[in-house]
Amino acid sequence: MFSLHIDTAKTWRGGQNQVLVTVLGMRAVGHRAMLVAHPRGELRSRAEEGLEFLPLAPMTEMDLSAAWRLSRAIQQLHPDVIHAHDPHGVAMAALALSMSTMPVKPPLVASRRVDFHLRGSALSRWKYRQVDCFICASEAIRTMLIGDGIDAARAVTVHEGIDLGHVAAAPPAPLHEELWLPHGSPVVGNVAALVAHKGQKHLIEAAALVVRQVPDARFVIAGE
After folding, report:
1. What pLDDT is recorded for position 128?
2. Distance between CA atoms of 83 and 63, rounded to whole angstroms?
3. Which residues contact 187 (CB under 8 A, 6 or more apart)?
4. Rounded CA gap, 99 and 93, in Å?
5. What does each C-alpha distance from 204 to 87, 193, 196, 210, 218 come to in angstroms?
6. 219: phi then psi, degrees, rounded to nearest 5
């Protein structure tokens, strides 16, 4: 199978990591996978040498120029499936497919990793109507999509993967020394953007319960 993966973000967060894990994982089992991403983004800089790459990033959600370039690439490459990993990527792919003159167009798959309701604007409704299948990171996200009007048959739950080899190879962080924590104390780490929907407040509430039974436990929150 030949899949085209689109992510328009310039920054590096969990979503971009998951795109890279997906593309490399598909290549590892013998499938062809090509990445469409921001030419100056972190995803591009972290992709390995030899990975098929198309530098492309829309300036706005309705960037017709970027969509036209993607449409031409799709017609030349003939991918079996197009996988958009972020909302701007969905819009660009939907526009590109609408411009295509291919007799049979590849299906459009969209990842959904956030528990936000779909926007009610005309553009949002149009672009998500073009999606053949939503890949939801949790059953809660799938339930929310169905509640927003997406047909249940068009939404599946696929939990995100972790490259265990990459994690095992990473050197341990010397948090006890760097943060002057008691030697041997258990450390609970949280790495996420400091925004309400990441739920750090729930972690803090849980910490208050944990320290009653594990008094020397320490909780470290890192984010921006």
Report:
1. 95
2. 18
3. 175, 176, 181, 217, 218, 219, 220
4. 10
5. 31, 15, 13, 10, 11
6. -115, 125
